[in-house]
Amino acid sequence: MAKSQTASGSWLDRLGLRGPDRAGAGKGAANTPSQSARRQLLDDIAGFLLDNDLDVSPANLLAVHAAYAGLDVRLGRKIAQQGAGSITQAWLDENRKDSGEPAADDGSQSLVAKLETTLNVFSGQVLAARTATSDYSGEIEQHVAGLAGIDDTQAFLSTFTDLARAMLDRTRQLETDMRQSEKEAAKLRTSLEKAKREADVDHLTGLPNRRAFETVLDREFREARAGLEPLVVAFCDIDHFKRINDTHGHAAGDRVIRLIAEILSEISDDKCHVARHGGEEFVMLFRGLDIAATFEKLDGLREKLATRHFVNRQTDEPLGQITFSTGIADVFDFTDPRAALRAADEALYAAKEGGRNQIRIASRTI
Questions:
Q1: Residue 295 CB burial class (10 angstroms; 0-12, 13-18, ≥19)
Q2: What CA–CA distance (Å, rounded) separates 361 from 351?
Q3: Which ranges of the chain would DSSP assign to H, the alpha helix?
Q4: How far apart are CA 217 and CA 108, in angstroms?
Q5: Span of 12-16, 37-41, 142-146, 197-201 with lowest mean pLDDT
Q6: Which of 335, 332, 333, 327 is nearest to 3 (CA)?
Q7: Using alpha carbons only, what angle is made at residue 331 by residues 328 and 337, rounded to the nearest 5 degrees?
Q8: Which residues are identified as catalytic?
Q9: Tell me: the pLDDT tens digits for 170-181?
Q10: Could you give phi then psi for residue 319, rounded to 5 degrees?
Q11: Calpha distance 43→250 (Å, rounded)
Q12: To the nearest 10°, the Cα dihedral for 33, 39, 44, 49?
């Protein structure tokens, strides 16, 4: 049977990330709680980089800030497990790649940037063509004014004909250039929209990825708050996943991830959103269900999965029982959606420590 227990404690304290107090950090009667928290966060980040002899680079600052601020709970957990003072640059670089964030050379993101640049170029070409048309109109006015002083009719007609031909040739070329530019711009906009959609999809499972989930979370939070509806967030993590990879290979591990994605998707609808958060971890959002109803729905899936035994189709070797652990949190029991996410992750961590294959409920803080 699953256990319905609560998980509590500070995010930094629970992961063991809170370093020793440094002189002057977060102290002083003039500091507000918000100022003190920001000062402590800066002090923790600086202390981490110095204690581990890491460069103060933009990439390191972003990664460590995400871990200490609770924006990247996976990286924060890995740092806590690794231990203070034992983090190398190579270790941080490798674990940043596994943290659920896209790599710097992510193909879809590069395509988006390239398409946006190209669109800007084409927009500039269209603007230049229009400007040239306007300039040419001014030239025509000047020539027409000059023709008024010609007395010879034949000379007048000859000059006017040459001017008209030049005007038509240039206008046709400008129209051709503009049509081609607009056609290319339309095709690029279509490609850009497709690339942006693909950037929000996890290509292994077909589920939305972490980036897409963040957008959904913000929207559902606003709508649930306005409609006075309950909103619950859940983190699900496959138990002993490293053992599956090590024993049966990464191809089998990928099939297990797709299996869990399919099972979780069974309850997905317009008010239940499932996304792959990174690695073997999934995140879910339930709008319109309270914490008890969410627990019951997820526990039904957990029990259904736990009764099955699986076989590696490529080798016919048994995979055995596959289970997942879950942490859930009522979003409105916390100061904001990100705090609820951190609480759900802490509850998941407690479920793992408590024996796995179970669900834990986060303790409310407000």
A1: buried
A2: 9
A3: 11-15, 33-51, 58-68, 73-82, 89-97, 107-147, 153-199, 210-227, 241-248, 250-265, 291-306, 337-353
A4: 22
A5: 12-16
A6: 327
A7: 110
A8: 280
A9: 777 777 777 777
A10: -85, -20
A11: 39
A12: 160
- Rounded distance, CA 99 to CA 97, Å? 6
Residue with tokens 């109109």: 137
- CA–CA separation, 141 vs 296, rounded Å? 79
CATH of 210-362, one of 3.40.50.300, 3.40.190.10, 3.30.70.270, 3.30.300.30: 3.30.70.270
Distance from C-alpha of 123 to C-alpha of 171, rounded to nearest angstrom = 19
CB 237 within 8 A of CB 280: yes
When pLDDT is averaged across residues 10-18 and rounded to a whole number, the result is 49
Both tokens assigned to 80? 């806590």
Please tell me the distance from the alpha carbon of residue 271 to that of residue 220, in angstroms, as a whole number: 8
- Classified as helix, coil or strand, 38 is helix
Amino acid at 37: A
- Is the CB of residue 44 less than 8 Å from the CB of residue 19? yes
Amino acid type, 249: G
Is the CA virtual torsion 47, 49, 50, 51 positive or negative?
Answer: positive
Is the predicted pLDDT of residue 232 greater than 50, yes or no?
A: yes
Q: What is the pLDDT of residue 365?
A: 76
Q: Classify the C-alpha dihedral 93-97-98-101 as positive or negative.
A: positive
Predicted confidence at residue 80, as pLDDT, reads 80
16: left (phi over 0), alpha (psi -120 to 50) or beta: left
> Between these two residues, 98 and 154, which has the higher pLDDT value?
154
User: Looking at residue 134, what is its pLDDT?
Assistant: 66
Q: Tell me what pLDDT residue 332 has.
A: 96
Tokens of 113: 């940037």
Contact 92, 59 (CB under 8 A): no
Q: Give the start-to-end residue ranges of the domains of the chain.
A: 8-97, 107-199, 210-362
Please tell me the pTM assigned to this model: 0.58
